[in-house]
Amino acid sequence: MPQKRVSIKDIAEAAGVSHPTVSRALRGEGRMSDETRQRILELAQEMGYTPSLVARGLVTQRSHLIGLVITTFADPFHNEVVQGVEEEAIRHGYDIFVASTGVNAEREKEVVRSFQGRQVDGIIVSSSRVGDDYADLLQETGIPIVLINSHVAGSHFHAVHHDDYAGGCQLMAHLLERGYRRIAYLGNARAGKANTDRHRAWEDSLRAAGLAPGLAIYGPNGRLAGGVQAAEALLPAARERWGAPPDAICCYNDTMAIGAMAVLRRCGLRIPDDVAITGFDDIDVAAYLEPPLTTFHQPRHQLGVEAMQVMLSLLGQTNPHPPRQVRTLIGQLVVRRSS
């Protein structure tokens, strides 16, 4: 037979106090002696008491659940973002549901709708492809939504994002200082605002250095295969443009850079002697490649922490239309042997 669930009533009987006294002691509230509170807490632990989230939700009108939407579990960028959100959520008594969208805007909307059905208190979306389309959902449900690194320009939602343009400019300044002049850009055709900002940083930096417009090739995605396909298209295009391979390649992210490095090696090009290469994000494996990859470190864990902090501040407000909160983070250039 399944063991009977220990209730607050059971603890009250064992402690010789009232049901409300036990409730207040478990919540850390109410007036009572330290000795009584400690005895109740010890009894609860000894008896194996587990609070009912359903019951707590009925009282507080909160589920203490946060829905977290990411593009794909295969993208190493999201690992630390999820960890940051979860750690901050747990510190404040919340749990999270995580779901992926497969980098599909319609799927993203479906996931958000499913979270609504699970009665989450708030929704955090990393690398959103939808952006302001959430306006109708927010008006309809009142569930607060916070975006992390939204790929939709001009969003009017609460947001935490990284300054990709500033990061891209620092990468380009590094390459230009090292004397590279035939600098190509490998972009991600599906990335939206993040790619636009990084591409613009590359383009503006070349212009500021008095160099002719460079060569930009886009892969179908930001994965390894996207980097391979973009690099395979880049090399013949570079020979046609410059009569030689590029002397440096600035990649949309680290994953594409890893794919591009494989193509360069297959073609007999040495890194960085023949072609330097940079990434973006500073995923864990970047430091362990051969050669280790120069990149721009995004504070991924902190993005998650601050997104949850914004969510907590929204959940604590009584104003149904709180002013928009936007936090901008900036990482740091990480120079390694690939450049």
From TrEMBL:
Transmembrane segments: none annotated. Keywords: DNA-binding, Transcription, Transcription regulation. PROSITE patterns: HTH_LACI_1, HTH_LACI_2. This is LacI family transcriptional regulator. Residues 6-60 form the HTH lacI-type domain. It holds the Pfam family Peripla_BP_3. It comes from Litorilinea aerophila. Coiled coil: none annotated. One of its GO terms (molecular function) is transcription cis-regulatory region binding. The keyword Lipid metabolism does not apply.
